[in-house]
Amino acid sequence: MAFMLVFACISLLQSCTAGSTVSTVTKNQPSNDAVTPLLDVIQVEAPLRASYGGASCKQTIVQHEFAASYGTPYIGSYSPPKDCKFTTTIFNMSVTSYGINFDRLALLYFGDIELWRMTTAMPVRTGIFYKYEKDLTIFDSLLRSEEKIIMTLDNIYNSVFTGSYNVTITALYFDDQETLTPADNILPISSQSSSKNQSSAFSLPGDNATTSLTLPRNVERAVVSILASGNGAEEFWFRNVINENKGFFNNDILYGYSPFREVQLIIDGSLAGVSWPFPIVFTGGISPGLWVPIVGIDTYDLPSFEIDISPWLGTLCDGNSHSFELKVVGYDSQTTLGTVNSNWVVSASVFIWSDHGGNQTHGSSIESQTPAPAFEVMPNVTSMNTTNSNLFSKLTAYRFLSHSATITTSSGIRKLTWRQDLSYTNIQNYTALGYNKTLSQHTRGISTFSATPRKHFTTISNSYSWPIFFTSNNVVSPDPKATNSTLVASIDRSSQSHTIPIIPYLTQSVSLFIPQVLSTRQNGSCIYFWNNTLYEFAGAIDPADGTLGATEQWYSYKDSQESYGRHVKAIDGYEPVLILDEEFQNTISVPEADLDMVD
Ligand SMILES: *[C@@H]1O[C@H](CO)[C@@H](O)[C@H](O)[C@H]1NC(C)=O
Ligand SMILES: *[C@@H]1O[C@H](CO)[C@@H](O)[C@H](O)[C@H]1NC(C)=O
Ligand SMILES: *[C@@H]1O[C@H](CO)[C@@H](O)[C@H](O)[C@H]1NC(C)=O
Ligand SMILES: *[C@@H]1O[C@H](CO)[C@@H](O)[C@H](O)[C@H]1NC(C)=O
Ligand SMILES: *[C@@H]1O[C@H](CO)[C@@H](O)[C@H](O)[C@H]1NC(C)=O
Ligand SMILES: *[C@@H]1O[C@H](CO)[C@@H](O)[C@H](O)[C@H]1NC(C)=O
Ligand SMILES: *[C@@H]1O[C@H](CO)[C@@H](O)[C@H](O)[C@H]1NC(C)=O
Ligand SMILES: *[C@@H]1O[C@H](CO)[C@@H](O)[C@H](O)[C@H]1NC(C)=O
Ligand SMILES: *[C@@H]1O[C@H](CO)[C@@H](O)[C@H](O)[C@H]1NC(C)=O
Ligand SMILES: *[C@@H]1O[C@H](CO)[C@@H](O)[C@H](O)[C@H]1NC(C)=O
Ligand SMILES: *[C@@H]1O[C@H](CO)[C@@H](O)[C@H](O)[C@H]1NC(C)=O
Ligand SMILES: *[C@@H]1O[C@H](CO)[C@@H](O)[C@H](O)[C@H]1NC(C)=O
């Protein structure tokens, strides 16, 4: 929700602002005589299709201003379009905001099932606009039925935080004349709170994120899609330290439970798969100045993680209910895996394809290998309590897991295997009593689903590499009412992947947009001043000398039908602007992120 140092205050926003004496601020509203055009705040992404023209039909499904919306989601109803022939469904979200506010997390649910998780851009006084198009075709069965829409965007709106978020989501339906094979059922692993007009996300570690589900007896294929993001005290989980080092500087600067996180899917008490999360950086993250007008990777559409649970079908198709649990754990030197801070917002969905020719799926007992992850930790706790000391730490982790079983459906007998291999390195160096830090982290993974003999299924392999490096130095004013505090920050990060996204692949097997090869890098640096009049702090973007801040991004994408490249560069500052914007109908070369310390 915000940058790091002032976190202790921000995480208690209400109490921070409750005592504030700031009351002279006038609300920023679009005024008729405003001449400044809205700032377009972009997430660099390949277009979903060659043209958005020629939609069979469209309808607005959400139009709502989220003002003082804390705890009050938008409730609406969805009806499938009438007399409209369609295969592909795209939701177009557009948002305007004027004034001052933090980035806010938003969740879009249809009933108990989460469709889209996003965070907002941070507004500027003269107003921002942004839009994002997301393909929702994998939810085809929901899109053809009546659904309750629940959209949560918990926003604080008062004399200090003057920015509301005016959200419009339009559904565009296209007839691409392909034969869809969408999931027959989508079952929620969620708190199932739609009947109470609440979103169904669990909050971990406080909640017990367990759902009992009874699957149909004739399932051919089942894949779990998980959405999980660290928020509150877990927004910057990757810069946390092991518990032994938490008190290193004898202050409250450092957060514990290690910089390692694992999201687990547990079926009937057994670990079925894991996600080592992408280090998402929201638009207030590391330094707010870095993300205007180019937001961080995946900000408007937080990535889901898929685990194929088809090897479990022999058990899951027995007609009984089974327990599906989501957990988030960190590294703990005593217990290897332990709890985390508050809070992780999680929910998941089970996408089920039925065996239409069969009555019951049978399976051999599952062969599982789930050894505990291997960790290596290098703390330096030799220089406690000295003012000029540094805390250097390195944590590495590796794990693999696999599940195999022989599954019999009407289409044959096959050995199905799900396997994951993951590696992780995190190196941090805290100085200046924890106020200055450098961090580099690299998460890599490969997930593979395979079936032998091959019949309808190909081997599906997804590999990814997520390096991130940043520095963030805080010089805190001894008298914040008189002088500014300064935040000096830089970032360099990439997302590289080679994927066959399992659920789109199973849904749209006719048009194989695969494999998808993505490489993108963002780097930038900026100096950000703020002072203790909360209003100014929340709204200030960079120093007057805007040349001190710049963010650059390369983006290169290719699938079997499309090649796309884009290179953008922005000057942050009082008048943030794109100074370079090149688009290509081909892939481009993306320079490697400079990780400084990590291989
Ligand atoms: C999405 O909505 C915005 C705002 O109305 C509009 O500018 C944009 O063209 C729309 N995108 C599509 C694909 O229709
Ligand atoms: C929100 O946006 C919609 C669509 O652009 C517009 O009609 C409406 O007036 C806006 N609401 C506010 C409060 O600005
Ligand atoms: C849920 O919201 C709808 C629409 O605002 C309302 O009609 C209904 O009474 C609400 N249900 C509950 C349980 O609050
Ligand atoms: C969580 O809920 C499940 C199902 O309701 C229950 O079996 C389990 O004991 C609960 N776990 C804890 C730690 O309360
Ligand atoms: C640092 O020193 C203080 C006072 O001497 C002591 O109370 C504290 O426990 C020390 N911190 C650590 C992490 O050892
Ligand atoms: C499925 O059950 C029906 C009704 O009991 C039976 O007629 C049919 O032969 C069964 N099909 C298979 C593949 O076992
Ligand atoms: C650990 O701290 C000691 C004492 O300050 C220092 O000599 C040593 O170089 C440090 N090691 C690392 C890896 O930073
Ligand atoms: C940590 O940072 C300090 C201060 O910049 C530097 O002197 C030290 O060499 C760094 N340690 C490592 C291991 O990079
Ligand atoms: C912390 O960072 C600030 C700003 O970059 C710098 O001026 C200061 O010297 C750093 N302090 C230490 C102890 O490295
Ligand atoms: C605080 O920052 C604002 C700009 O964000 C500036 O106008 C104001 O003068 C600053 N106050 C002090 C005391 O520096
Ligand atoms: C604080 O920073 C603002 C820019 O954000 C600047 O206008 C102001 O002059 C600065 N105040 C001091 C005391 O340096
Ligand atoms: C990003 O890194 C490249 C080197 O790979 C450098 O030339 C460029 O100036 C950096 N961009 C920014 C905005 O820091």
UniProtKB/TrEMBL annotation:
Stretches assigned to the Peptide N-acetyl-beta-D-glucosaminyl asparaginase amidase A N-terminal domain: 51-370
Keyword entries, A-Z:
Signal
The reply to whether Signal figures as a keyword in the UniProt entry is: yes
Keyword flag Signal? yes
Query: Per the UniProt entry, what species is this protein from, by scientific name?
Result: Amylocarpus encephaloides
The name under which this protein is listed is Peptide N-acetyl-beta-D-glucosaminyl asparaginase amidase A-domain-containing protein
Task: Write down the superkingdom of origin.
Answer: Eukaryota
Name the InterPro entries on file.
PNGase_A, PNGaseA_N
Q: Which residues form the signal peptide?
A: 1-18
Q: Which Pfam families match?
A: PNGase_A_C, PNGaseA
